[in-house]
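Sample intake sheet
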Amino acid sequence: MKLTHLAAGIALALAAQPALAQPSSPERDRFHALFEELVETDTSPATGSCTRAAEQVAARMKAAGFADAQLTLFSVPEHPRDGGLVAVLPGTSRTVKPLLLLAHIDVVNARREDWARDPFTLVEENGYYYARGVADTKALAAIWIDALVRLKESGTRLRRTVKVALTCGEETNGAFNGAEWLAANRRDLIDAEFALNEGGGGGTNKPGGKVVEQAVQVGEKTFATFRIETRNPGGHSSVPRPDNAITQLAQALVKIGAHRFPLEFTDTTRAYFRQAGAGRNDEIGRAMVALAADPGDAAAEKIVNTDPFLHSNLRTTCVATMLDGGHARNALAQRAGAYVNCRIFPGHSIESIQGELARLVDDPGVSFETLPPRRPTPPPPPLDPAIIGPMKVLAAKYWPGVPVVTQMANGYTDATFLGAVGIPTYGVPGMWGDPDGNGAHGLDERIAVQSVAVGRDYLFELIQALAR
């Protein structure tokens, strides 16, 4: 996109809405009804159906005037409950490539007996929405759909075509993944110059506190899980063998646990350490800035490594997550095994990390197997000012004085699959969470009501700024 078009788009967007959420209106009530229906439709792998949720959203969009040709419901026979939806709002230009808005609508399993509230009933309490999926990521899905409906009904003509893909399977490794399927089978349907996704967002200084940072996710690690095993004939425990399977496995895991992969930077992580470090005003912040300037500064790295997130953000990490072995308390183990989960820094293949672990262990009696699913390892998207610039301009309006940083995720999202087929994908600022993680994947998941309301306004303006 030309920066001149961006400037005009941002100027129009800035004039469109005030920075704070407005009182109830028919439009906002309609958004709440959409959000509520989406949240209260169980889409967990154990008891729910993404297909049903996608069909409900499609019905709402058809009622708002979208034609059948602009709404594509998809699923596969082997996974009939894991369907999704792609919706398209055509733009005026035949040459400018589309903008894709991505959100997964599946959620982590939740049991009523474990929660203080029904996990599949939207409850508003003490300034928060409570329910499974409110934060991860049904609020974002509702905001994307609401934005297309508002643009459609207002008759707003954007240069870019805007697409929304609601997918299933992000939370369930090894199951059907809608984003992966679309990338492999319907690349034409989601074709876009770039995409906006989960992964970014703001953080508060305490639960219910003020927003102190907004982030744009630019890139993420790939994950891989390795099965490590040792085997021998076993025997009676009264006659120990020198080649004990459990001991042999333990020695391998000690080596893996003690290993620290080397420090690395991408353009994104270097910028993050420089920007976020400058805003911290503490010893770690000063060390972050020093390390960004000189990655060989061992003293600065030692200080930064005391923070688990920052330590992991600088390198590949591998950690043992599960153990098993033996068949009787009075017998020598014939087999011992462990699962080692690695979060791989961009630029390294799964095979290269497995090879490095095998060389580190240096024991031919320890076998390594890469377990499915095998995720692609795309390069991080560029720090494109035509995309990130509008995010920062609008953030200055909504959160004056709050820094907007670019960061790489230590985990992964469905952006992996889009990046692998050439669609750079960015995690958006806008909504925010608390330092305790807001119960995402855990009990009593929540998101601040104001986070959803202000995030909705911010993202609506952002879509217009990027698509004009």
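Comment: The chain has two domains: 3-220+379-467, 222-370. The chain has a mean pLDDT of 94.
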